Amino acid sequence: MGFIVYFIILLIIPMWAQFKLKRTYGKYSKIRSTSGITGAQVARTILDRNGLTDVQVVESRGMLSDHYNPLTKVVALSSHNYHDASVAGTAVAAHEVGHAIQDAEDYSFLRLRHRLVPIVNISSNMSWVFIMIGLFTYWSGGLLIGIILLAAGVLFQLITLPVEFNASSRAMDQLLEHNIIRNDEERHAKKVLSAAAMTYVAATAVAVMELARLLLIYTNMNRS
Q: pLDDT at position 224, please?
């Protein structure tokens, strides 16, 4: 019974975060920004005013596929955010440019996260192989290896939090400094960014809970 409740909680947390994001984004993507400029123009304006003329702004496919690639120096915005002049699109565009500013300023957490990517790509695929072998064969050593590999992914999630929160903070500062948002738009933009941040918080919470559960299983396995 306890495992079922735990499993349900693991499902509910990320589902709730995604629901909140889609609802908040959906609401403010329908509200036109007073500046009347598209997300692509918002991104370009902030980049240029920060001297980041070498960073490109491109359109990306998929809903909420917005991201910044530090390797190619590209801010990619989903079609709706790229073309439309909405409060949500303005907030998202500024957030992604926030990552570009972090990159330009050599923000430590962004740099560390970037260095962890190749390690996490390998460890995330291998961790559950050892975990499943350890659980089914009652091999505590294999389970421990899996836990260590999984911990790399959890560390990545934890480092992602300050990166995302800092990018959102930078986004709001830039939007206000350059008078891109006005009046109630500040509050609305913060709601969009907060909803997006909650998806990262939820993912981190789930990852930490799962790691803690496996550590408890490992401890009990060695006691028996």
A: 64
Per the structure block, which two tokens stand in for 134?
């350890």
Per residue in 182-204, pLDDT (tens digit) is 888 999 999 999 999 999 999 99
Q: Cα separation of 47 and 97, whole Å?
A: 7
DSSP state of 62: S
Q: Which residues of 8-41 are buried (b: 16+ CB within 10 A; e: fewer)?
A: eebeebeeebeebbeebbeebbeeebbbebbbbb
Place of tokens 């990262």: 200
Return the half-sphere exposure (C-beta side, CA atoms, 13 A cut-off) of residue 48: 8
Element (H, E) at 66: none
Determine whether 96 is an active site residue.
Answer: yes
Say yes or no to pLDDT of 35 above 70. Answer: yes
Residue 13: φ, ψ to 5°? -55, -55
- 189, 175 in Cβ contact below 8 A? yes
Mean pLDDT for the stretch of residues 88-112: 97
Find the catalytic residue in 96, 105, 164, 210: 96
Reported for 73-76, long-range contacts at CB under 8 A and 24+ positions apart, including other chains, are 73/100, 73/103, 75/43, 75/47, 75/99, 75/100
